Amino acid sequence: MSEKPKLHYFNGRGRMESIRWLLAAAGVEFEEDFLETREQYEQLLKDGFLLFQQVPMVEMDGMRLVQTRAILSYIAAKYNLYGRNLKDRALIDMYVEGITDLMGMIRVHFKLPPEEKEKNLSLIIERATKRYFPVYEKILKDNGQHFLLGSQFTWADVQLVETILMAEEKEPAILSEFPLLQAFKARMCDVPTIKKFLQPGSQRKPPPDEKYLARANRVFNRK
Ligand SMILES: N[C@@H](CCC(=O)N[C@@H](CS)C(=O)NCC(=O)O)C(=O)O
């Protein structure tokens, strides 16, 4: 196994993108093995490397990790992005899960049939501005600090800024009613490791398109 974590997934965002973000934010270099063909996927299955026959899979520290959430929490714990105690962890889990629910809606939007896209986009905007962003705006207001957990930079901050940028790709003015989240985003994008990840040529992936979907369908034998 290589020294650096090795990520097995498509050459696209999907469920792996938050893992790329978290590693990048932690300043960890990683390698990627992109799934392009059915044969590559079958080889991973044959080798017994995919516990539930699914990707993302990350080779790291002598393990072959699967299940996105498990991979993220391992990375967060390893690189001190998971709080100082159990209560911090509970808060981080709540904040991450909330933002992941919103992210999940945005992540699958591109796959919807054209006639459902507009309605679904309205739902995303409604959920972002009425349910999720008000919560994070209030947390920042109440603690009057830089990060969701006050002075500690954590996994929750990384997941939130990733989702804000995804939401802005759908609706550029989506943060207009949230001044503290705007300031938060600016601060986060200025964290050196994140700033680097946001530069062109980094391992950050572009929004998914038809080609990405066709590749995934090919690999999983879906029509
Ligand atoms: N609960 C898993 C779900 C993983 C998952 O659904 N992966 C998809 C690709 S994004 C996959 O491998 N699908 C093939 C299959 O389920 O057979 C996770 O969060 O990692």
From TrEMBL:
GO terms for molecular function: glutathione transferase activity. Residues 85-208 form the GST C-terminal domain. Keywords: Transferase. It holds the Pfam family GST_C_3. Residues 3-83 form the GST N-terminal domain. Transmembrane segments: none annotated. One of its GO terms (biological process) is xenobiotic metabolic process. It comes from the Eukaryota. Gene3D superfamilies: 1.20.1050.10, Glutaredoxin. Its EC number is 2.5.1.18. InterPro entries: Glutathione-S-Trfase_C-like, Glutathione-S-Trfase_C_sf, Glutathione_S-Trfase, Glutathione_S-Trfase_N, GST_alpha, GST_C, GST_superfamily, Thioredoxin-like_sf. Belongs to the GST superfamily. Alpha family. This is glutathione transferase. It comes from Pogona vitticeps (central bearded dragon). The gene is LOC110090243.
